[in-house]
Automatic annotation (TrEMBL):
Superkingdom in the source lineage: Bacteria
InterPro entries, per database record: ADC_dom_sf (IPR023375), DUF2071 (IPR018644)
Upper lineage: Bacteria, Bacillati, Actinomycetota, Actinomycetes, Pseudonocardiales
Name assigned to this protein: DUF2071 domain-containing protein
Signal peptide: none
């Protein structure tokens, strides 16, 4: 049975191996047919579906110090801009998750560390977040690895707080990630407080990261645009997923 869509995790993390802050988060989403993205998911998972469709997400934000019960906080290395292209997955035990197709980040050291240790598709990029009142501008230009020069510019105007419904929770309240790791699939759980969400107006979008991930250019504007000041996030210990 698939776990419920909920604003809080049904599986609280007992031991936090890593802690992070995700700040100034913007969520852009496009609805797509599940069969169009199934081939991008790791073994043992399938597209997570709501009302017959799944979603492609483009999510720019700021990452703040990395640290937990193991390892020190790293103020310079751990604070950087990041933009993710992601899909939504569910495994045979019903755990809902995220599958990252790319994670562009502006610090080389965490990019190398995540690529080597977790096999996550991190990319080193030149990035910037600028804010003027309620208008946030995120820019990204990929440096390594390719496709070199893939870029993105997202400008949004944050609006009023929204009460999250089923769709908003489906797109934002994801309680783990699925990742292919040395011939197997792992599930890395996380938990965090309920997202404080605001509606947002898309002022400008010029994105090549979704296409660079192999999905092609999205058809039309995003069907959902949300913003959040952010949440603290705790990651637990990864567990294998049965194929």
């Amino acid at each position: 049975m698939t776990e419920p869509v909920s604003p809080l995790t049904p599986r609280p993390v007992r031991f936090a191996a890593v802690g992070q802050w995700w700040r100034d988060v913007t969520f852009l989403h496009w609805a797509v047919a599940p069969e169009s993205v199934a081939g991008f998911l790791p073994a043992g998972t399938r597209p997570d579906v709501l009302d017959g469709v799944t979603y492609v997400g483009l999510v720019p934000f700021r990452m703040h110090p990395i640290g937990g019960r193991v390892g020190p906080r790293l103020p310079y290395v751990g604070t950087f801009c990041e933009t993710n292209v992601r899909l939504y997955s569910v495994d045979a035990t019903g755990r809902r998750g995220v599958v990252f197709l790319s994670l562009d980040a502006s610090r080389l050291l965490p990019v190398l560390g995540a690529r080597i240790s977790a096999r996550l598709p991190y990319k080193w990029s030149s990035m910037r977040l600028e804010r003027s009142g309620e208008v946030l501008s995120y820019t990204c230009r990929r440096l390594w690895p390719g496709p070199r020069g893939a870029s993105s510019r997202v400008v949004v105007r944050a609006g009023r707080p929204v009460v999250a419904g089923e769709l908003e929770n489906f797109l934002t309240a994801r309680w783990g990630l699925h990742v292919a790791w040395h011939g197997m699939t792992l599930y890395l759980p996380n938990d965090h407080p309920e997202w404080p969400l605001r509606d947002a107006e898309l002022v400008e979008l010029d994105d090549g990261l979704v296409a660079a991930a192999g999905l092609g250019n999205p058809a039309g504007p995003p069907v959902s645009v949300l913003h959040s000041p952010g949440v603290p996030v705790r990651f637990g210990v990864p567990v294998p997923v049965s194929a």
